[in-house]
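User: I'm designing a mutation panel for Homoserine kinase and want to avoid disrupting the core. Could you give me a predicted structure to guide residue selection? Please restate the sequence first so the numbering is unambiguous.

Assistant: Good idea. Sequence first, for numbering, then the predicted structure tokens:
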Amino acid sequence: MSAFVVRAPASSANLGPGFDSLGLSVPLYTTLTVTPGERTEVVPLGPELEGTPANEDNYVYRAMLLVAQRTGQPLPPARVEIHTEVPLARGLGSSAAALVAGIVAANRLLGSPLDDHAVLDVAAREEGHPDNVAPALFGGIVVATLDKLGTHYVRLDPPEHLGVTVLVPDFELSTSKARAVLPREYSRADTIHALSHAALLAAALAQGRLDLLQHAMQDYIHQVWRAPLVPGLSDILDDAHKHGALGAALSGAGPTVLCFHDQRGTTASLHAYLLGVMKKNGLTGRVLDLPIDTQGTLVTPAD
Ligand SMILES: Nc1ncnc2c1ncn2[C@@H]1O[C@H](COP(=O)(O)OP(=O)(O)O)[C@@H](O)[C@H]1O
Ligand SMILES: N[C@@H](CCOP(=O)(O)O)C(=O)O
């Protein structure tokens, strides 16, 4: 088998009330160059991956082994070079991109015994929720569930003109730490609020109802609990729409914050506002405008 490249995108999960069930992909990529050979080598490259293990403990390699376990076939030896543009532990799904890329690479090495749905199921079970891995695999916006019966999903093409602005602070927040602050139980009122807003948000995204996003993205399931971990988040959720955002949410478990914008307009005032909130809170970071990635994970021949 010749060498090949797997490219998996970053993702922004939850989008407010779609906790563990709704996400979209953005064009920042984790790339694996896989060269079948005599022995296994894991080679993390570039500054973002400094400190990640260069051996079989690497998260990408552990993801590859999941396919061997699922199929009962041993993983053929290969050199796996890993590069990523996704900032780690910022709420942009770096672990999901690494997981999906590893699973897709191993599946390819084994002659593709798993179809796309099975790849998603392996990834979602490992991650524990499907809202990052589904858009990382399929691109676009994905609504997904994971339960005892498996993983189910609907992929949506992004509405025309819908763009994303992300504020990526210069500090890490691990997903496990940001999950640990969530309550174990929710009131009936908060549950109904979340269900109705997540359903409205999915329908609004499906029909391109950009006018509904600001309202539909209201959430009391996770953002209120995580706000103390992300200085400035509450201000942005309350006020970003006054500066041109169509809606705002904590991206995944944070600390990145996502705003939607209309690509036909300018985001200059939104950028100035977001940078100002960061400065007011003594933080540094960057603001990026990104389209929504529609390709998901791609496999191509290596040069
Ligand atoms: N390309 C990669 N190679 C190896 N490990 C990775 C890679 N991307 C992410 N990881 C692992 O995932 C961790 C971040 O995962 P997580 O806390 O879920 O944050 P997020 O997925 O939001 O970036 C990193 O600290 C690292 O251990
Ligand atoms: N639904 C999860 C999403 C975590 O996303 P990540 O990009 O922070 O890994 C959660 O909110 O915990």
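For picking mutation sites, this is relevant: The first strand starts at residue 4 and ends at 13. Residues 30, 44, 49, 52, 58-60, 82, 84, 88-96, 98, 174-175, 252 surround adenosine-5'-diphosphate (ligand 1) (CB under 6 Å).
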